[in-house]
Amino acid sequence: MSTTDGFVHPEFLVDTGWLQAHLGDSELRVLDCTTHLIPDPKMTYTVKPGREDFEKGHVPGAQFIDLQADLSAPHPRLRFMLPSAEAFAAAMGRFGIGEGTRVVTYSTTAPQWAARVWWMLRVFGFDNAAVLDGGFRKWVQEGRPVETGPAARPTPARFVVREQRPLMADKEAVLEAIGNPAICTLNALSPEQHAGTGGNIYGRPGRITGSVNLPAAQLVDPGTNAFLPAAELRRRFAAVGAMERPVITYCGGGIAASADALALVLLGHPDVRLYDASLTEWAPDPALPMETGD
Fold it and tell me: Is the pTM above the cut of 0.90?
């Protein structure tokens, strides 16, 4: 059985065998998106790019992309915010991504980092991209070839943003969704953080009022980091009321929410947006409603 069986949009997920077979394709660009969040009592967390991990081992021919430095808009407080179309196009061009290229993203840790870059590509109108199912963990488990050291510099390309799709939500959109039973606001953080028992990480504990919970960590096999079968994912999203309504996903800073968004798109959900600033913006503002408890 293929890992993409049962998905409505299997083109956005590739398996390790497919990637190994296509490593020699001239139009292929592979991006390692690994990022680590280190708990920091002064700053919620410290962002550590995964470049060191990359140089210890990566998919042959891959490039390392730094989500904070390469793909985030500068902001004094909010991290990982969507960059401008011009900045995004310039970054993609530096990595050799342009007309006619095929992009595969992966990470060595949880798949949401790869999903975040895939989502940004989609926002800016680039659909010829997919996430490596299971990422580097599954790749290594299967004994596939590994390259070490820094990446070779890619030949620059011209990336053209042909459209900017309305796939991001702001706090005004989330406020409008509160109390609206026609919209599902979906929290991708852990059950403990959703209930408010996981620590005061973002300014206030708990969740956006009225939101439901399907943690990004519950979308994948914990042993391989590969997505669960389509039928099981569909069952889990349906259980929280996310399959039949427009969805706004959120988390702490728009990363874990990207995994939920990707899974919903794989399942064919037609209306998914991502609250980019998420709780990093929402929780510190006492005017914005939050709740705790089961």
Answer: yes
